[in-house]
Please model this.
Amino acid sequence: MEFAELIKTPRVDNVVLHRPFMPRVEGTLCLTGHHLILSSRQDSNEELWLLHSNIDSIEKRFVGSLGTVIVKCKDLRIIQLDIPGMEECLNIASSIEALSTLDSVTLMYPFFYRPMFEVIEDGWNTFLPEQSFKQIESLTDEWRLSYVNKDFSVCPSYPPVLAVPKSIDDETIRKVATFRHAGRFPVLSYYHKKNGMVMMRSGQPLTGSNGRRCKEDEKLINATLRAGKRGYIIDTRSINVAQQAKARGGGFELEAHYPQWRRIHKTIERSNILQESLIKLVEACNDQSHNMDRWLSKLEASSWLTNIKEILTTACLAAQCIDREGASVLVHGTEGTDSTLQVTSLAQIILDPTSRTIHGFESLVEREWLQAGHPFQQRCSQSAYSNSKPKWEAPVFLLFLDCVWQILRQFPCSFQFNEHFLIFLFEHTYASQFGTFLGNNTFERKKISSWLRALKLLKSLTFVVGNLKTEMLKRGKLKLPQKTVSLWSWVNRPQDMERFLNPLFEANSLVIWPSVSPQSLLLWEGVFLRWNRSSKCLDEAYEEMIHIIEYNKELQSKVNTLRRQLAELETEDVQLETP
Model:
């Protein structure tokens, strides 16, 4: 398919652009295969470049021959284009709708983007499982890397390399995988070097209504316990939801079969509820009534901050079990790809100071979200403005980032990165020139030789179901590391990383315990209100803060210099006085 087929009118003059808190711009609107571009006629520096993939929905309005297209973006921005001529307006709107809803992943911008910067560090190879495991290997010999999933046959949503207990062989792991949802057997998520306790994650056990048992599964998770110690299983579902899952073949660990483990149920809402929560929150933030009761009522009805509280509470519980109780933890919900990852990654933010650095946080996102199989392609295909009914969409990763921001706000000196870094990641999960967040798991992101052999076989078979063949071919040919640029390749360039550095950062090796009381949790204005009110005053305050910090550093340097000079003079005086 050619993009030109979807562009009915590639260029329109005398278009007026309206954006929040910015002067109106009149210029020429151009549509390309991936961008909506508006260039000012008066000021050549005034341009708008908007990825079609960032467009969530559009609305059309007409007054006489003047048409208006309101573009609602996945980053929650709303812009207005006044287009002269009804036909031109209809053509532009139709083209935008077609270009912003392309089905094929390989037609997205990351496959066409060519970086204007030199790639010094290839982000695709920066956070390999073998590299992450080296630190654990230096601390303990109780774990090993398993390649049982090297061809993705054991668990399609897991990476090819996983950390498992050293005493458990690969054949046992294969049996455990058949007992866990989608083959997601328990794997190492975090090793707490302070006391050697671990956090694992998995999918739900497939106990079913008959109370099915798997002794290999019991053996695997018991292998993580120290002599005389008990562990905790944190189930991110309510007990009722977990009970209902048994009727569908799922379930939870029965105490009779796991006597050394205590099961705790903590309710974190499922994806469809979270998507509705986001939609209601954004609607509340866009309410122009200026009525306090209406605002507070809508904010409460969205349950967004309630969701934040539940997720943070569960993460704090996991961290407390590990650090204060001295117990190992297994976290799972149903699939183990959403709420499970929120809990395990936030617990690491609390426990591990490395995760609070830029590089450490990138490693966390890569390890606990991308490699762990969070379905970014499904979850982030729509945002809060889409007119279609949500199917797989949910702001799971955005909620995680919001929780991180809540902790950062409470501990502003303990994070190397700033709020801009979190907002930057939020934007790129929904629309990006980089390939990092495309696909739903490692299997979909990489070309696997064994699958290519299978694909060649499929080509020669005439009786294969067409849809299955097409889907397998599509998945096997993504080859993101070869065909797209990694987001980390750009972020980790020193000149670009500088904008994400927190000027208040002071390395803190301690565990940080965030408050989860309702009074401590705030609406993340940097995401949800940045297009609704001007940030000029906040930006000016931030610049002044940086100026004060830099000035303080200069004064501190002068003080240190004067102290050295004073010490040298005192030494000389002592030498002169000595006969």
